[in-house]
Amino acid sequence: MIYNSSLVVSIAFFMTCLVINAQTITSRVIDKKTNQPIPYATIQVSEDQGIITNEEGRFNLILGSKHSNIDSIYVSSMGYEKVGVSIKNVVDSIIYIQPKAIELKSVFISNKNLTIDEIIDTVKERIPENYNFELSHRRLFFRESEFNTIKKLNIKFKESTIRELDKKLIDSVVTIIPRKSEYYTETLCDFYGDLEEGKINIIKAAELYDKNNEVSMEAMTKRMETIFKKNVKPDSYLKIKSGLFGTKVQVDSILEQTENGDEIKDKIDKENTGDFLKNQRRALKSLLSSLFFNEDVMSNFLNKSGRYDFKLVDYTYIDDQSVYIINFSPKRSEDFKGTLYVNTEDFAVIRVDYENVKNLRNFKLLGIHYQDNLYRAKMLFTKGTNQKYDLKFLEMYRGEFFGFDRPLKVIEKNKHVKGRRKQNELSLGIDAVNTYKRKYEIVVFDSKQLTKTEYNSSIENKSIKPQYLSKYDPQFWQGYNIIEPNAAIKRFTATPEVE
Questions:
Q1: Which GO terms of the molecular function aspect are on file (predicted)?
Q2: Percent of the residues in the chain that have a pLDDT greater than 90, as a whole number
Q3: What is the pLDDT of residue 96?
Q4: CA distance 440 to 391
Q5: Are 438 and 178 spatial neighbours (Cβ–Cβ below 8 Å)?
């Protein structure tokens, strides 16, 4: 016991020293000429470690004991001078950087005097040697923001043979459905793998949303279940019709699910941790597989470059590297436009910004309207110690639109009852419009190569649960490097609980 107590005291002392020695730098990067914030600027601590500013130019950097010998940080952004700033002068201050003048030296006019087609062809040829496709260990921070907006929800009550399912109840259901909802997930993790397969070890995670919306809907669901059990016969089936279309659902299976609802909920709660890990792994793998140079990606402007117009419009610098600025747009019916920033020396795309110019999918028939209408992305890459480029930062927006303007009937039928099969009917008219938008952010702090053996031996921590937050808490990520949240996240707070 004495040995164990000493060990605990030693560990506590060691952790205290780490906290004391850690230094937090909170600052903002500003354009010296325009006084405007500079988003996505790189804050470098060492050759392979650093963070990035958010869209408001803000960053929060933790320097631990391993950085005790570092006295400066380096700030750089596309088109700006790279500057070194003394750590003691940057705490809680503003960092000003100024645009860098373009010098058209011989690097641009000798063997680099290429046509745009030759530049794009060389970019494509060098993808295998320029980018890191190997197994790697990446320490990264992943934020997912979801925004759901019901722009229209009109439910017209027409008929009901069940007394409790009246217009008053339908109106109350419409009232409690939130017109706007936000959901944020933040995860700090180690990602082991390549661009096709991977495992994640979650270090810490948080969920930020309004739980009260769920409580209201759960109460209404239980009320509907009670009405359903009371009025619908177990051996019936439901015919759900919308105009000419219909489907059958056995009532027995619905009743079984409602009777076992608490048991199922308990089981789901126990599995929530595993589900969260699976969802995060799936989302990260999907985003990494969507990088512009991969095959069969929706953003096909490079692997189907013949369908796009490319124009060399200017030159600039990124981290003291001269780059071509190349705009692209669809020739005919393709989907994207954007800008490539191509290193003039090795022809690697070290930054790309693009967005869709039309709906990626558009379906409209018989009162149902669906659009896949938003795909906007920004990707930044940096060269690692293996001289391969790896993802440094990704920001992606995806958005959808759904409209429904149709009649809806729910009819209970029972073939075991004498006389008419139809027992009950609920008839409604639904006119609804809903938009759904997601924003993904990934910042990779460092990346190291892995052997196959190291990858196979890496494990996933399935015991970490995301912590629920009803409002933004600046203390939650204290001691960890993340990408700073924007003002909308900092302002978010759940509605007060109803007594």
A1: carboxypeptidase activity
A2: 41
A3: 86
A4: 14
A5: no
Among 278, 131, 142, 123, CA closest to 194: 131
The upper half-sphere exposure of residue 449, i.e. CA atoms within 13 Å in the direction of its Cβ, equals: 12
Residue in 340, 350, 336 with CA at minimum distance from that of residue 298: 336
Give the H/E segment covering residue 9. Answer: helix 2-21
Counts of helices then strands in the chain (DSSP H, E): 10, 21
Q: Are 157 and 428 in contact (CB under 8 A)?
A: yes
Pick from 233, 204, 78, 76: nearest CA to 141: 204
Closest CA to 286 of 381, 427, 385, 191: 191
Cα–Cα distance between 77 and 53 in angstroms, integer?
A: 10
Report strand pairing: 58-63 vs 23-31. antiparallel
Instruction: With residue 381 as reference, give the H or E element that holds it.
Output: strand 368-383
Tokens, residue 116? 């745009």
132 three-state secondary structure: coil
Going from N- to C-terminal start, the domains of the chain cover 2-101, 132-298+360-472
pLDDT-wise least confident of 21-25, 218-222, 312-316: 21-25
Could you give the CA distance from residue 249 to residue 172 in angstroms, rounded to a whole number?
25
- Residue 239 predicted with pLDDT over 90: no
Q: Is the dihedral of CA 91, 74, 50, 376 positive or negative?
A: positive
C-alpha 238/C-alpha 323 separation (Å) is 64
Cβ contact 189:140 at 8 Å: yes
Pairing between β-strand 349-356 and β-strand 368-383 as defined by DSSP bridges = antiparallel
Q: pLDDT tens, 359-376? A: 999 999 888 999 999 999
pLDDT in the model for residue 119:
95
Q: Based on C-alpha coordinates, what's the Rg of the chain?
A: 28
Closest CA to 445 of 75, 44, 38: 44
Question: In sequence order, what are the beta bridge partners of 290?
Answer: none
Q: Which two tokens stand for residue 184?
A: 């944020």
Confidence band of 330 (pLDDT split at 50, 70, 90): very high
**CATH 3.20.20.150: does it fit domain 2-101?**
no
